[in-house]
Amino acid sequence: MKSTACTLVGIPTEAGTTMRGCMMGPAALRTAGLAEALESLGHPVRDLGDVTPDRAADLPHPNPALHKLGEAVAWTRAIEAAAFAAVQDGGLPIFLGGDHLLAAGSVSGVARAAAVAGKPLFVLWLDAHPDFHDLDTTTSGHLHGTPVAYFTGQSGFAGAFPAPAAPVPLSNVCMMGIRSVDPAERARLDTLGATVHDMRAIDESGIAALLGPFLEAVAAAGGWLHVSFDVDFLDPAIAPAVGTTVPGGATFREAHLVMEMVHDSGLLRALDLVELNPFLDERGRTAHLMVDLAASLMGRRILDRRTRSAA
Predict the structure, then answer these.
(1) CB-based burial label for 18 (10 Å; 0-12, 13-18, 19+)
(2) Is residue 161 within 8 Å of 167, Cβ to Cβ?
(3) What is the pTM of this model?
(4) How far apart are CA 179 and CA 166, in angstroms?
(5) What are the angstrom distances between the C-alpha of 94 and each of 28, 45, 56, 78, 260?
(6) 100 close to 127: Cβ distance less than 8 angstroms
(7) d(CA 268, CA 196)
């Protein structure tokens, strides 16, 4: 197996949500042995510590539902700069969240680096939600529901968020595991013709049949692949440590298959691990599962897995 230098970047943000706990996610992933798991597979690991944003400005907005807009903008600027620098520095950046707002910055920063390298960026969005609101359409006001709309350059962010330097074409985004979509998101996604594989499509066709063509398209374009993995992509029965539980998510084997297929493709250039809320976990169960999935993404095979004692 080819050795890949990995760079861990902690993003302890809760700016996209009002539920407390996600800021502990990076520490939980480190404690669960993410670096050790990667190193055991032959991948050198460098941990850059946690990103710290500049002081948040007070940003008024016509939508009174918005929470922590100034804080979210400050985090997005800081994460985008950190993501760009991590890619430019070489290796594969792994962004440890933190809520899914972080993808507004991580994907934008990786996309800017891809543009500098003359490569198109593709995003595999593993999530129960499409996160396709803008600042006007969100009714909850939780900005972790906006990153895909932001990094694909949709309207509704001007005057608050900086414009992405290299917007990712929506046609380069594949959403999988979707099972909770608000009306405004559905209308926009339908209009723009986004690739959305909900859980019914996965049930009917199988996850490999849906993921395979997307990976082939990335390879054919000579593109880079950014995987953005939200804990709620998984069924909450196996991953309880998330604030937005939606029943009917991906199974243990479906999730590992996705990771194994991405590894086999050789296309991965960046990874988000987000929405882990250790305050809601059961003895680190979800954190350990996320580490196991990251290990699959980086080359751990079925035959490498040790049987765990039930004692």
Answers:
(1) exposed
(2) no
(3) 0.96
(4) 29
(5) 14, 10, 25, 16, 17
(6) yes
(7) 20
Over the stretch 255-280, which tens digit does the pLDDT of each residue have? 999 999 999 999 999 999 999 999 99
Question: Could you say which DSSP state residue 151 is in?
Answer: H
Q: All domains of the chain, ordered by start, with CATH?
A: 6-301 (3.40.800.10)
DSSP string, 234-263: B-TTT----SS--SS-B-HHHHHHHHHHHH
Residues whose CB is less than 8 angstroms from the CB of residue 161 and which lie 6 or more positions away in sequence, other chains included: 72, 73, 76, 104, 150
Structure tokens of 189?
Answer: 């996604």
Residues contacting residue 5 through CB under 8 Å, at least 6 positions apart? 43, 44, 45, 46, 90, 91, 92
Residue positions annotated with a catalytic role = 100, 127, 129, 131, 144, 230, 232, 275
Give CA–CA dist 150/126, Å, rounded: 17
| Distant-in-sequence, close-in-space partners of 31: CB < 8 Å, separation ≥ 6 | 284, 287
What is the overall mean pLDDT for the chain? 95
Among 93, 86, 82, 94, CA closest to 51: 82
